[in-house]
Design brief:
This protein is an alpha/beta fold. It contains eight helices and ten strands.
């Protein structure tokens, strides 16, 4: 009987594939919103999380702190917003939008951009509506580890900030990436912990196996000017004036983001 149970258990356990997560996700998503709120409190002790008009300026392709005495943005966030502003999309979609700070900040910095957000947690979206009432109607529920939904908008740019980092179960991060590339007509931007998945290898493989429908794929990264801060990855359907990303080692040399 024990041998039979072992065989059944082995049959039911998915066989790990190259680049796939093999354990459970890092959080119980049913209660993640509680930890998320606590993390926001800690973050706000050191950094500005919600921008006001005049806090930062974007000029000469740079996002610069403009108000004296203001706590700076976390460097992950500053680099993300700067990259979005450089790409100048007509529309963006954030997967895992949480409390909505990134969407609100991008809208402040580039008012012409149409913003959209999706999160798997209604509790997170409730927090978003509390924190940013102006975003009511902008964000909705979508679990990006599930198959594509036609309720998700098509945009120029789709991005994440520390989302795929936490998705470790089976091939869920592949599904999430596939959904992001399906939503994005021009670019996918990733700010992640690069030690959690083989991002370059995984995206390259997905493109080779036609899981990404773009006719061409260019992978780039941008490095922060601040020493030992993370890089950001830009996958693009067209050539861009960024540094080509040739391997995963380039990413893992950087400090993982929060």
């Amino acid at each position: 009987m024990k041998r039979l149970l072992d065989l059944v258990r082995r049959w039911r356990t998915p066989r790990p594939e190259f680049g796939a997560g093999t354990g459970n996700d890092e959080y119980d998503w049913r209660i993640y919103h509680e930890e998320y709120r606590a993390r926001m409190v800690d973050l706000e002790r050191l950094h500005t999380t919600v921008l006001r008009d005049g806090d930062y300026t974007f000029g000469d392709e740079r996002l610069t702190l403009a108000r004296s005495g203001l706590l700076p943005l976390h460097e992950n966030h500053r680099l993300l917003y700067e990259t979005v502003c450089q790409l100048n999309p007509a529309s963006v979609l954030e997967i895992g939008c949480g409390a909505g700070d990134h969407l609100a900040n991008i809208k402040l910095l580039a008012p012409s951009i149409q913003i959209h957000g999706r999160d798997r947690s209604e509790n997170q979206l409730r927090f978003l509506r509390e924190r940013h009432p102006e975003l009511d109607g902008v964000a909705g529920v979508f679990d990006a580890t599930m198959p594509w939904s036609n309720l998700v908008p098509t945009v120029d740019v789709c991005f994440t900030q520390a989302v795929l980092t936490h998705i470790q179960l089976g091939n869920s991060h592949f599904v999430t990436l596939a959904n992001m590339f399906r939503a994005a007509a021009r670019q996918v931007i990733l700010m992640e912990n690069w030690t959690k998945h083989s991002f370059h290898a995984d995206i390259t493989r997905m493109f080779a196996e036609r899981m990404i429908s773009w006719p061409r794929l260019f992978l780039y990264y941008r490095a922060s000017d601040v020493p030992r801060q993370p890089h950001i990855v830009v996958a693009s359907a067209t050539e861009l004036p960024y540094t080509p990303l040739l391997d995963d080692e380039t990413l893992t040399r950087s400090v993982p983001p929060i």
